[in-house]
Structures are given as C-alpha cells and as structure tokens.
C-alpha cells in the first residue's frame, strides 16, 4: 500500500488509515475477537496507520487497538490518538450505557472537556496506558470547536513542547468543520489536520481554506467521513447524511453520482474512497471498520481503478466543480487487484464505523 510522510515530519502514513471508533462499540457492540480480527485484516492488507481516541467507547477503542497491535514491531506502524476529553469515573457509573454519545458501552466514566496543558498531559498519559504503548506518533486536539482559545493558548503549546521533546512526532487537530483548522494552520505550526466529512465526493467545503492552506505550508490532511455518514455507500430514501436523514436535494445528487459511477463500472463507494487522494495535501483517507470483512471490502474498493472519464462525466454533469483536483487513474499492481467475493454490508448504515467524531 502506498505511503507518504506527514508534512515536514518523518511520520509515515498509508493511503488508507484504520479508524478505530468502530471497535470501540460505535452504535452497537463488537466482540473482542471481531475487533482483533478487524485490525489483523487491516494489517494483512498493508494498512499501517491507526487512529483512535479516548472518546471512542470510553477508552475501549484504545484498549482493543493496543491489544491487537501488541507484539508487532513498533517502528513499522503509526498510531494517532486525541486529547481534549478526559475520562473521569462516573459517580453512578455502570448503571446505564453510553449510547447518548454513540457508544454501546457501560457508562463507567464521563467525558470532561479539558484543553489545558495539564489536561493534555494527563490525557496522553492515560491513552498510552490504555494502548499499552510507550509513545504515540500523532497527537490531535479533538473537536475543540467550543474551546478554541484554550486549545490555541494552552493545549497547542503543550503539544508543541511534547513534539519538541520527542514524546510525539506530529501534532494537529481533528475536527468536523473547516474554520478552526484553517485558523490553526495560519496561526500555529501543526503538522496535520484530520478533517471529517468536509472534503468528500459530495461536498468540498475544505477546498475553500483548509486544503489550500495546508498545501501552501507543506502540511498534510487526513480525510475522514468520506461516505458522509453512509449516504455515499448506498444512497436511498432514509439514508443518513452527516448523522441526520439526507435532505431530498442531497439524496438526489448522490443518486446522480451513483448513476455516473456505475456507467463506468465503478461502485460509488470506490469513487468516494479514492476522490480525496486527488488533492496534493491529502496524505490518507480514514475509514473505520468493526469486522475483518468490512476491512477487506474497503481495501478492495480503494484498490479499484477509477477511470479519468468518470471524473470528467461528474464534472460535465455539474456534480463536481471544474476546479476540483481528481486522482490520476493509476493502474494497480496485480497483487492489489480486488478479488471477486461477497461484499460485507455490516457497516454501511454509517458508511463503515469510526470515520471520526
């Protein structure tokens, strides 16, 4: 699988990153065995970049990811986690569940927003303990939308110091909107932005500021949420778009895109996965999975060749702006060609699990 470096760092990322929210019981339970098998399938497919966070399953994602990677050469893979939400024991923990936050786990802990320097250090130390690792490669500020000033004046300097000390190799921000990462790119020395749902086949809000700023400064973007909550896996009435039912005009656009991709013999999912990699600032696409079958299906889709004529027709139909960069139709190696087999649809309701949130 192709790899590239993040920004000006020496951190290597594969063009597909494994999002580990799904193995943190996103929306529904996953067994330990299924979680381990999903990570193993990603590894076998050449994926070497894994993204997690304390938020995902109240730490369950980090624990399962660390267990699944245990015994593998630490210098051969990249792990990112996030700071900004501390996990504290719930005073009445364990009596209910965490589904209000999207995770099917007991509510043994509660999340406390904390973008202070001390909060960053405590969060990272706890993450390392759950992962069973002595370091993470990438540390991201997690959704500091409503804590922007503290994130800029306290959390970012803490991450910058950790990077300078070699505790982490790359630092950045992981968000679902564009204004704040653009500001961070202008005002700080972050290495990477994890941008979810804002640079997809369906919408390219990130092209206004985030991606140009990153490219101009030699920084990298990892794109998550490429299926826009599942709409670009199977557009139909009732499909979700950004975690809510898709408006009719958005659904119609997705259906028109699907018709174009199918005329070229390409599944819509394959085009959606490949599209963000056409921008020079995009280093990787992040897609989650909760099973080995989901992983293999995602890898098969990413390895499909998407012809230039498909992008041309999307532009001609007014479904892509004329100035949007698109991937080259590079042939894949024979070993990378998708194999004919039954498809797993287990994760498609949400566009596979764990894109970022």
Task: Please sum up the structure shown.
The protein has 357 residues and is an alpha/beta fold. 32% of the residues lie in helices and 19% in strands. About 7% of the residues have low confidence.
What would you note in describing this structure?
With 357 residues, this protein is an alpha/beta fold. The protein has one domain: NADP-dependent oxidoreductase domain (TIM Barrel). It contains 10 helices and 16 strands. β3, α1 and β4 form a beta-alpha-beta unit. The longest helix has 17 residues.
Mean pLDDT: 93
Radius of gyration: 19 Å
Q: Could you give the count of β-strands? A: 16
CATH superfamily annotation: NADP-dependent oxidoreductase domain
Rough shape? globular
Please trace the helix and strand order, writing H or E for each element.
EEEHEHEEEEEHEHEHEHEEEHHEHH
The CATH architecture name reads Alpha-Beta Barrel
Largest sheet: 8 strands, parallel, barrel
**Fraction in helix:** 25-40%
Distance between the termini: 26 Å
Per DSSP, what share of the residues sits in E-state strands of 2 or more residues? 15-25%
Alpha-beta content class: alpha/beta
Describe the strand arrangement of the main beta sheet, using strand numbers.
Answer: 3-4-5-10-11-12-13-16
What's the level 1 CATH class? Alpha Beta
The number of helices is 10
Determine the oligomeric state from the structure: single chain
Catalogue the unreliable spans.
Answer: 331-354
CATH fold-level name = TIM Barrel
How many domains make up the 3D coordinates? Answer: 1
């Amino acid at each position: 699988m192709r790899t590239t470096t993040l920004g000006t760092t020496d951190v290597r990322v594969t063009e597909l990153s494994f999002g580990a929210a799904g193995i943190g019981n996103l929306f529904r339970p996953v067994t330990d065995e299924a979680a381990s098998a999903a990570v193993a399938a990603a590894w076998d497919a050449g994926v070497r970049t894994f993204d997690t966070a304390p938020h995902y399953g109240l730490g369950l994602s980090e624990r399962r990811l660390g267990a699944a990677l245990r015994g593998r050469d630490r210098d051969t893979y990249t792990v990112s986690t996030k700071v900004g939400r501390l996990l504290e024991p719930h005073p009445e923990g364990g009596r209910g569940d965490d589904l209000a936050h999207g995770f099917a786990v007991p509510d043994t802990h509660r999340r406390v927003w904390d973008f202070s320097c001390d909060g960053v250090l405590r969060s990272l130390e706890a993450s390392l303990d759950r992962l069973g690792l002595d370091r993470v490669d990438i540390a991201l500020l997690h959704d500091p939308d409503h804590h922007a000033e503290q994130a800029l004046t306290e959390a970012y300097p803490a991450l910058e110091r950790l990077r300078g000390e070699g505790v982490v190799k790359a630092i950045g921000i992981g968000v679902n909107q564009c204004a704040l990462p653009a500001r961070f790119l202008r005002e700080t020395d972050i290495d990477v932005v994890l941008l979810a749902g804002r640079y997809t086949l369906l919408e390219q809000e990130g092209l206004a500021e985030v991606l140009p700023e990153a490219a101009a400064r030699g920084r990298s973007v990892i794109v998550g949420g490429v299926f826009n909550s599942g709409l670009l896996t199977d557009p139909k009435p009732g499909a979700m778009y950004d975690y809510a039912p898709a408006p009719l005009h958005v659904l119609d656009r997705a259906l028109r895109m699907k018709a174009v991709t199918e005329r070229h013999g390409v599944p819509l999912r394959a085009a959606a996965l490949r599209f963000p990699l056409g921008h020079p600032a995009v280093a990787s696409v992040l897609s989650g999975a909760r099973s080995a079958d989901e992983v293999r299906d995602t890898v098969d889709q990413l390895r499909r060749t998407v012809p230039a004529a498909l992008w041309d027709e999307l532009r001609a139909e007014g479904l892509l702006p004329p100035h949007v960069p698109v991937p080259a139709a590079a042939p894949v190696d024979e070993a990378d060609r998708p194999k004919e087999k039954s498809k797993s649809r287990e994760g498609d309701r949400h566009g596979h699990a764990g894109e970022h949130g």
